[in-house]
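Help needed: design a sequence for this.
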């Protein structure tokens, strides 16, 4: 049974860090299909990336088609193009937030990182095994997690600190271990029995330590620079092939709606598609060409007519997309040229 209250809470918390249009493109479809095959139970914890994708609800992946089927190579050198001078200064990528999970954890043997998000207030990841419902989700937050209606609750000690083990009323197989891991930080480790046993969840909880994980949490994206005055406020990804970042100008409150001039940038394998899709006011879906060509920093960038989405083939094996509700299209063209594969 789906815990709708938990999902609602997750969407509300994570929508503000959701990647914009360019982050939910054809390439993401492969990751969604992969996770659907595993039939994971995201409702137990509200997995960061999955919730962000649902919360966006504006531009959707091209249904039933992979990037290789709808993609197109960058326009040939003979295509009309103009050199667009940089309209926005760029600076070194800030070190405030990096694409590394702020914790280390030991998950059950055979489990692999599947989806993750690093944010200013809340960070988390989903790890999956090979069988149905073999899912462990770990979350670290600056405030306690709401648990809504519970079927049961009992005390537990994790790492010498008091906590509790809860089962949700909507599905008593969904288990969460909740505790305050450090002063000012709360942790959650969740899964679904019997596929993930309470002993396995406890072992993962006991192993959880607040220190950055080695590597980059699977991010395939590097930013060589960012626009002047902007900073990265969240990173997210699925497995090792997707990397996305959300950037905003100046201070951003931990919670609440993001300013319109915030932007996203993402990196995918393969060839950039020729179009994206958007939902209409009546609920339909229409193709939106991304074909307004400009050469920026030596890279052929293509924008949609409304200037809200930009694609670029940044190297033979990777393409980048950027999007925003209010940032200037020249800025979006600049940021895709700063996206590089690790």
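Sure. Designed sequence:
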């Amino acid at each position: 049974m789906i815990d709708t209250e938990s999902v609602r809470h997750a969407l509300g918390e994570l929508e503000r860090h959701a990647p914009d249009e360019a982050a939910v493109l054809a390439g993401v479809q492969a990751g969604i299909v992969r996770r659907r095959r595993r039939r994971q139970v995201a409702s137990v914890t509200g997995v960061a990336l999955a919730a962000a994708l649902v919360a966006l609800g504006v531009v959707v992946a091209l249904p039933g088609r992979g990037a290789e089927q709808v993609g197109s190579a960058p326009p040939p050198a003979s295509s009309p193009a103009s050199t667009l001078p940089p309209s926005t200064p760029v600076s070194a990528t800030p070190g405030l937030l990096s694409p590394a999970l702020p914790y280390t954890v030991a998950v059950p043997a055979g489990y692999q990182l599947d989806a993750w998000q690093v944010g200013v207030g809340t960070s988390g990841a989903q790890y999956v095994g090979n069988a149905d419902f073999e899912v462990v989700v770990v979350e670290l937050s600056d405030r306690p997690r709401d648990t809504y209606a519970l079927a049961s609750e009992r005390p537990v000690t994790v790492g010498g600190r008091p906590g509790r083990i809860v089962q949700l009323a909507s599905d008593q197989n969904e288990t969460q271990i909740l505790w305050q891991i450090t002063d000012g930080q709360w942790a959650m480790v969740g899964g679904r029995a019997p596929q993930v046993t309470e002993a396995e969840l406890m072992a993962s909880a006991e192993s959880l330590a607040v220190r950055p994980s080695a590597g980059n949490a699977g991010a395939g994206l590097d930013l060589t620079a960012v626009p002047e005055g902007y900073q990265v406020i969240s990173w997210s990804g699925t497995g090792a092939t997707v990397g996305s970042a959300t950037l905003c100008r100046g201070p951003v409150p931990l919670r609440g709606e993001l300013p319109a001039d915030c932007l996203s940038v993402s990196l995918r394998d393969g060839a950039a598609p020729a179009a994206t899709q958007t939902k209409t006011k009546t609920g339909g879906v229409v193709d939106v060409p991304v074909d307004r060509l400009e050469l920026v920093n030596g890279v052929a960038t293509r924008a949609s007519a409304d200037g809200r989405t930009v694609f670029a083939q940044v190297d033979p094996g990777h393409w980048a997309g950027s999007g925003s509700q209010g940032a200037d299209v020249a800025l979006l063209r600049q940021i895709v040229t700063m996206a590089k594969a690790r």
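The mean pLDDT is 75.
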